Amino acid sequence: MNKTVQDNLVVTLDYKLIVEDEMLESTEDGEPILFIQGIGQIIPGLENALYGMEVGDQKTIVIQPEDAYGDYDPESLQEAKKEEFSEEVPLDVGTFLDLEDDEGDILSAQVIAAEEDTVTLDFNHPLAGKTLTFEITVSDLRTASEEELDHGHVH
């Protein structure tokens, strides 16, 4: 009897990610991704599309922003003074930064504008507001170990 994708199975997935007719990522020349199904390790739209698939199954799925990285939020832009950053930190447009907030959480931001004394940071995910097309193949399925389930990731 063939296993189908269900919660608490380790899924080995090969994929191509296409956004606006451009392939952004592919496992074709590298390693497939492994994750535990049903615990939110991948975006909701992709996780939901996998249920019931078997090893060897392929499909193309289109995921709307609300089931991926959310809508683009213009309020997630923030201006900061350059003097707040260490001189070693590159503040060029396009640079991604990991910043710590007041609670100690790490937030990722991209520099989208740089003036003489300030930079504008975008805290949206780079794929926020984008419709994602995935071409996926389930390469393997296995039961997650107790340790993997306890730790919340594949070993």
Folded structure, characterized:
This protein is 8% helix and 40% strand. Strands 1, 2, 3, 4 and 9 form a five-stranded antiparallel beta sheet that branches. Strands 5-8-7-6 form a four-stranded antiparallel beta sheet, with no helix packed on it. The longest helix is centred in the first third of the chain and has 7 residues, at 44-50. It folds into two domains: 9-68 and 128-151, Chitinase A, domain 3 (Roll); 74-122, Thrombin, subunit H, CATH 2.40.10. By secondary structure, it is mainly beta.
List the helices and strands and how they pair.
Blueprint: E1 9-19, E2 22-26, E3 33-36, H1 44-50, E4 58-63, E5 77-81, E6 96-100, E7 106-114, E8 118-122, E9 132-143, H2 146-151
How much strand? 35-45%
Tally of DSSP helical segments: 2
- The unreliable regions are none
Structural class: mainly beta
Q: For the CA atoms, what is the radius of gyration?
A: 19 Å
The CATH topology of the largest domain corresponds to: Chitinase A, domain 3
Query: What is the terminal-to-terminal distance?
Result: 26 Å
Overall domain count: 2
CATH architecture of the largest domain: Roll
